[in-house]
Design goal:
Structural class: alpha+beta
Largest sheet: 11 strands, mixed
Number of domains: 2
Order of helices and strands: HHHHEEEEEEEHEEEEEEEHHEEHEH
Number of strands: 17
Shape: rod-shaped
Radius of gyration: 32 Å
Keywords: Membrane, Transmembrane, Transmembrane helix
CATH class of the largest domain: Mainly Beta
Bound molecules: 2-acetamido-2-deoxy-beta-D-glucopyranose
InterPro entries: DUF3712, Tag1
Length: 344
């Protein structure tokens, strides 16, 4: 298969038309049959050439495009607003580089491969590329959110999963060098991306509790480190979380100006308004009183960025609870100077 594809098609064309000429030494016999050669030539020109140009080349071009591999190194979603954001994608396309061709720029629909109706959550304008073995495609563009439900689903898949699949698909044209014709082809690639695993591994430290709330009503402060297992950097904004303890809501957690980047360097100030009663009751019970840690659960509540409510992040963050152990025993000891004792 690759033998045929490797040869520029022009060469095959010449080989065929050379054949009749090679038998040119046959004067009388050949002259009589000149019309046979003419018909053969016409058949070749009228049928074979168009078949190659109209059927073979586009098929080869499409199959080469299908074999190429798209991989994504990074995605950034910045300046998040209710109806739009700025998206950057760093990606590479790898192919065998055996065909010299140009692929026109095109709008690529991006959708979740494993979500029911494949509604695009974003359209990315792919620039013109060549069929070189290694193509770097870095794009930064203003992106309209045309379908909030699809974009919320994307954020939810990103948040909840270890990995998830995104497909980029669009119709475009390819020009094979040496053939003055643009052939329609479809670019369709599915990539597997790492997800955020619901922020598994988030920790809270440098905690302090105050007996009376501050001006904003907060009585708990600390820092949180949120690991980002994904390739996505995103500006979320001012974010609040429901805070549950042993199945009951005990308060609200606030993280301001939340922008998550890939890696472990996501450390943010957090503050909270907590009902002291249930926390003090729980911390005196076994096993919590033994090491002082209480298992809080956080679930997204509201997201506001520069005055706009971002329901596509709020709804995604509300899709699941993340359990975080917080050293409440140690925090209380810092305030009172005394360790919490187990209730008899
Ligand atoms: C793309 O790569 C450049 C250069 O390494 C980097 O500055 C930028 O943050 C990357 N963008 C994304 C979306 O990963
Ligand atoms: C982006 O969306 C916001 C509303 O969320 C709107 O105010 C703004 O005009 C939009 N920007 C553009 C360039 O369309
Ligand atoms: C494109 O992104 C890659 C990272 O994927 C980076 O190494 C490269 O410098 C970027 N190129 C430009 C022009 O931003
Ligand atoms: C990803 O997360 C969504 C939403 O929680 C879920 O419906 C889907 O099955 C998950 N799995 C994969 C592999 O995408
Ligand atoms: C999160 O946990 C709370 C308290 O245990 C529970 O009421 C709620 O249904 C949970 N939500 C999700 C999405 O798991
Ligand atoms: C977050 O809220 C604070 C007030 O609590 C405000 O000053 C700040 O501008 C907000 N940040 C964003 C990104 O909306
Ligand atoms: C791309 C990248 O830096 N990913 C990191 C995301 O965070 C996890 C854990 O925090 C790291 O293991 C990944 O390397």
């Amino acid at each position: 298969m690759s033998d045929i594809q490797d040869k520029p098609t022009i060469v095959q064309d010449e080989n065929v038309s050379l054949k009749p000429r090679k038998r040119g030494g046959c004067v009388g016999h050949c002259l009589k049959l000149w019309w046979v050669y003419l018909i053969v030539l016409i058949v070749i020109v009228v049928i074979a050439v168009p078949v190659i140009l109209l059927v073979a080349v586009p098929k080869i071009a499409q199959s080469k495009l299908d074999e190429a591999e798209l991989s994504i190194q990074g995605i950034r979603m910045m300046n998040s607003q209710a109806k739009n954001f700025t998206m950057s994608i760093n990606s590479t396309i790898l192919s065998d580089g055996k065909i010299k061709a140009t692929i026109d720029g095109f709008p690529g629909k991006m959708y979740l491969e494993d979500y029911h109706d494949h509604t695009p959550f974003a359209i990315i304008n792919f620039p013109e590329t060549t069929a070189d073995a290694m193509q770097v495609v870095n794009v930064t563009q203003f992106t309209e959110i045309n379908d909030i439900a699809a974009f919320t689903a994307f954020n939810t898949f990103l948040l909840m999963n270890d990995t998830f699949r995104v497909t980029v698909e669009g119709d475009t044209f390819v020009t094979v060098h040496g053939i003055a014709r643009r052939y329609p082809v479809t670019f369709k690639k599915t990539v597997t991306l790492p997800g955020l695993r619901l922020f598994a591994g988030t920790t809270v430290f440098d905690t302090s509790i105050t007996l009376s709330p501050d001006a904003r009503g907060n009585n708990f402060k600390g820092k949180t480190r949120i690991p980002n297992h994904s390739l996505v950097t995103f500006e979320i904004g001012n974010t609040t979380f429901h805070n549950y303890l042993l199945g009951n809501e005990v308060g609200t957690v606030y993280i301001d100006d939340l922008t998550l980047s890939p890696g472990d360097d996501n450390v943010f100030d957090m503050r909270a308004t907590i009902d002291n009663g249930p926390v003090l009751t729980a911390i005196q019970e076994k096993p919590y009183c033994e090491d002082g840690n209480l298992p809080f659960q956080l679930r997204g509540k509201d997201v506001t960025n520069h005055g706009q409510y971002l329901n596509y992040f709020a709804d995604a963050l509300a899709a699941g609870n993340q359990t975080i152990e917080i050293d409440i025993g140690g925090t209380i000891k810092k305030l009172t100077g005394q360790a919490v004792a187990c209730k008899a």
